[in-house]
Specification:
Elements (H helix, E strand, L loop, with lengths): L29 H17 L13
Length: about 60
């Protein structure tokens, strides 16, 4: 079950994380990672959100 909606503040900084269920991978290959990056880019433009850093934990 997802978390409850958080209160948003104008100008605030937020730390976001994405994890697979039970430690599973959320990207199967480079194509998945690239699609995720495209989606993040589109959403940051749509919702006027600046992304300062993005890190992939590739094992």
């Amino acid at each position: 079950m997802g978390r409850a909606w958080r209160i948003e503040y104008e100008g605030a900084l937020y730390h976001l994380m994405s994890r697979g269920n039970d430690g599973q991978h959320i990207y199967l290959n480079d194509a998945d990672r690239n699609l995720f990056l495209e989606m993040i880019s589109e959403m940051s433009e749509r919702f006027k959100v600046d992304i300062f850093c993005l890190c992939f934990n590739v094992q």
